Amino acid sequence: MKIIDIHPAELRSAAQVVLDAGGRMQMVYAWQPEPDITELRYVLTESVDTRFCVWRCLADNVPSLATVWPLLSWYEREITDLYGIRFGGQPEPYPLVLHDGFEEAEDSVASKRHSALPELSWDGANVQLLPFGPVRADVMESAEFLFFYTGETIIHFQPQLFFKHRGMERRFEGLPAAAGVTLAERVSGVSSVAHALAFCQGVENACQCEVPTRARQLRVLLAEMERLYNHLHYLGHLSHTTSLKVAEAEGKLLEEEVKRLNARLTGSRFLRSVLTIGGLRRDLQIDEAWLRGELESLRDRFARYKRHLETTDSHLDRLITTGHLDRRVAFEQGATGPVDRASGMDRDLRRDHPYAAYADLPIKPAIRNAGDAHARAQVRMQEVEDSIALAQRIILLLQPGPVRSDWQIRDRAEGIGWAESPRGTTLYAIHFRVGGNLARVKIKSPSFSNWRAFPYTVHDSNMMDYAINEASFGLTISGCDR
Q1: pLDDT at residue 112 greater than cutoff 70
Q2: Which among 11, 79, 231, 280 is most buried, taking Cβ atoms within 10 Å?
Q3: Which SS3 state, helix, strand or coil, does residue 32 take?
Q4: 3-class secondary-structure state, position 469
Q5: Is the Cα torsion angle 335, 341, 343, 344 positive or negative in sign?
Q6: Terminal CA-to-CA distance of the chain, rounded, Å?
């Protein structure tokens, strides 16, 4: 991992160079290597097809980079809330994580804030405000959505999240690295493998641990099985929002069957307690003929399901043109994963920054250009087919051998790990203290990125399409709130 020291006065010009070179900013975070020193770390690729690198600078008179890279705005606002660091020229200078009436705890590094949202108003008697949440129907996670609307038209949409901010990053501090795997699996329950894998690879990067071939191959299998059940649930839930009850039931039945395969394969429907630093906790005794047969059966059933979805006019009519996300907006606001690829962005960490055993596999990202709810569904449908093919291929390539390597942490080591989760880029930046325990863990979760982009598809849309649009993004609030 390359670390570059940079002066705050040089940040804006350097960020513009990265943008012009086709690079990509991923995130910025703060941490304190010493009690009286706060550093900022910018994680990025400097140009096309380069490895991740890190800019390091002191948090003193730092300008906002959100005017160059709008996706960094939420990260800067989060840092202001939790570390009290202000960014000069921040275009959205109001809290993100902290809500109205927040009072600072004695052991908190967060600054006291009281006004959590900007003042929003429109002239005209016909514009109304609908505050929806934070308690919503069914088992929906807590969030408050402010709709400024007239008739059925949504003029402006303002989400307020972080009602159940769990401080997951803070919970890592002081833990032994091995215990961090269990915590990472619970950052976002439906992406346990992706989070644990990114965490493990971050530690392995820090201690230069080489993972055995069989473990790397099995990590691919687990990651693709996780992608399968997530995407099948997504298609079932999306069908629910278009009132296609049979399609909802079929999608969730296929999801359930994949979870049962996971349980037989690992003992966990959500594939937990398998990954560890250095490889896997234990080898998986795979009946290859059985698993390949089950995957082939799933392929046939999914092909029929997909065909029906793509020929049901009442379903397609609700998806096509709904929630359009422009390619430029997707790039600037930091959209990731299927949301990003449905707007024409050709990016996938499995191919662009291969990890585990993905370098040995043919990865061809599913790309659509329409940028609407239908395109987002089509990307996931293709990824279901691709995941089945990748799982079949990795089973054929499986080699016998050990599944775990020894590892040892150096004092003050640091590393970065990543994974392409079912929802997109998952990044872990990890720092160790003297003695080998965790000092700081920063998580870039895909839902944090996609919630940033989502409002741009709601403005000037209509109330009847809102639920469909939100479902088409596949967002989780727990993954965002962390």
Answers
A1: no
A2: 231
A3: strand
A4: helix
A5: positive
A6: 25
Instruction: Answer yes or no: is pLDDT of 68 > 50.
Output: yes
Q: What pLDDT score does 120 carry?
A: 61
Report the pLDDT value the prediction gives residue 479, as an integer from 0 to 100.
83
**Cα–Cα distance between 301 and 277 in angstroms, integer?**
36
What does the alpha-carbon distance between residue 254 and residue 235 come to, in Å, rounded to a whole number? 10
Distance CA 211, CA 198 (A): 14
Q: Which helix (H) or strand (E) holds 155?
A: strand 153-160
Whole-angstrom distance, CA of residue 317 vs CA of residue 13: 46
Q: Which two tokens stand for residue 27?
A: 């995130």
- Give the type of residue at 295: L
CATH 1.10.645.10 is the classification of domain 170-449: yes
What pTM was estimated for this model as a whole? 0.94
Query: d(Cα 180, Cα 132) in Å, to the nearest integer?
Result: 36
Distance CA(155)–CA(331), nearest Å, equals: 23
Which residues fall within 8 angstroms of residue 153, CB to CB, at 6 or more apart? 460, 461, 462, 463
pLDDT, position 118: 60
The domain 2-83 is classified under which CATH number: 1.25.40.420, 3.40.1190.10, 3.30.460.80, 2.60.40.420?
A: 3.30.460.80
Distance CA 206, CA 326 (A): 38
Question: Mean of the pLDDT values across residues 388-393?
Answer: 97
By 3-state DSSP, what share of the chain in percent is helix, strand and coil, each rounded to 5? 45, 20, 40
User: What is the rounded distance in angstroms from the CA atom of residue 342 to the CA atom of residue 362?
Assistant: 20
Residue 363 carries which DSSP code? -
Q: How far, in Å, CA of 74 to CA of 53, rounded?
A: 20
Among the residues of 160-208, which ranges form H helices?
A: 168-172, 177-184, 192-207
CA dist 256 and 474 (Å) reads 18
Residues 469 and 238: beta-carbon distance below 8 Å: no
Which residue shows structure tokens 């900013």? 25
Q: How far is CA 22 from CA 18, 266, 341, in A?
A: 6, 41, 17
| pLDDT tens, residue by residue, 271-309 | 999 999 999 999 999 999 999 999 999 999 999 999 999
Task: List, in order, residues 6 or more apart from 145 with CB less than 8 Å away.
Answer: 131, 132, 133, 157, 158, 159, 160
Range scoring the smallest mean pLDDT among 109-123, 315-329, 450-464: 109-123
Tell me 185's DSSP state.
T
Write out pLDDT tens, residues 146-181: 988 888 899 999 999 998 788 899 999 999 999 999
Residue 130's pLDDT band (cuts 50, 70, 90): confident
